[in-house]
Amino acid sequence: MPGSDTPRSTTMSGPGVPFRFRDRSEAGRRLATRLAHLGDEKPVVLALPRGGVAVAVEVARALHAPLDLVLVRKIGAPFQPELAVGAVADGGRVETVINPDVADFVPESWIGEEKVRQLREIERRRAVYVGDRPRVPVAGRTAILVDDGIATGATMLAALRSVRRARPRRTVLAVPVAPLDVLSELRVEADEIVCLQAPNPFDAIGAFYEDFHQLDDAEVVHLLDEASRTRPTAAPSSNDRAP
Q1: Cα–Cα distance measured from residue 212 to residue 197, given in angstroms and rounded to the nearest whole number
Q2: How many other C-beta atoms are found inside a 10 Å radius of the C-beta of residue 132?
Q3: Is the pTM of this model over 0.90?
Q4: How far apart are CA 220 and CA 224, in angstroms?
Q5: In the Cβ-directed half-sphere of 11, how many Cα atoms lie within 13 Å?
Q6: Burial of 15 (0-12, 13-18, 19+ CB in 10 A)
Q7: Could you tell me the mean pLDDT of each successive run of 10 residues in the chain, 243 residues long?
Q8: What angle do CA 151, 73, 110 make, to 5 degrees?
Q9: Largest CA distance in the chain
Q10: What is the pLDDT at residue 185?
Q11: Fewest Cβ atoms nearer than 10 Å: which of 26, 31, 68, 79?
């Protein structure tokens, strides 16, 4: 269960015609306005690379919050790599989520081997993206997890559970777009959900962006370097720390 007694809540735009964001930066700025109420909580913003970084940079800037990563990798099926058997995340603690509906058709040995491969890729990405910069402390703080959208929810589920093991005071899931049914499933994992639109039926995430190009490692590094030059350095007060 989430690590606070605050009631879980979901905030999203009401029904209407789905709209397209110009790009991830615009989505991040729009999302930041819906998260303004969290500014006084001295939050930490945690991005899911790669696409989530471009959204999270805008949120962190608006909230004057430090930015860090939750590195998540899908565990794909051997017969269809895009089909998620599960996901593995490292947000300070390694967390694995398995989709039993798919895993029943995949050899257990494959899942174990693929998990090892994806953890290696996570370590490679951390070395490339942040180098030797220390992780931003999460314990006792409001952690805002940001991505550019949610499709099946497997990677975000792994990310939320990984971050919760680092003992934040509250967890907030913040995305520009996601399916309503997936958000409903994730409500038990986060203290608060903020989503700008949850259309039904739901198309691919990219359908809600005019520019949804695949960010490469160089773009991610540039965004993180830019954020690190202006990120707050103050540590949370003793009243904000986990017991």
Answers
A1: 17
A2: 5
A3: no
A4: 6
A5: 13
A6: exposed
A7: 51 65 98 96 95 98 96 88 85 82 87 92 93 92 97 92 94 97 94 94 92 96 88 45 35
A8: 110
A9: 51
A10: 93
A11: 79
- Which tokens go with 222? 């540039």
**Locate tokens 């099946």: which residue?**
152
Is 193 in a helix, a strand, or coil?
strand
DSSP conformation class of 38: G
Do 150 and 183 meet the contact criterion of CB atoms below 8 Å apart?
Answer: yes
Sign of CA dihedral 212, 32, 162, 121: positive
Say if residue 48 is exposed, middle or buried (CB neighbours under 10 Å; 0-12, 13-18, 19+).
buried
Length of the chain counted residue by residue? 243
Q: Please tell me the predicted confidence (pLDDT) of residue 10.
A: 62
Q: Can you say how many angstroms the Cα of residue 64 is from the centroid of all Cα atoms in its chain? A: 18
Under 8 Å between Cβ of 193 and 172: yes
User: DSSP class of residue 205?
Assistant: G
Q: Is 70 helix (H, G, I), strand (E, B) or coil?
A: coil
> Three-state SS for 115?
helix
Residue whose entry in the numeric block shows the structure tokens 């989520």: 97
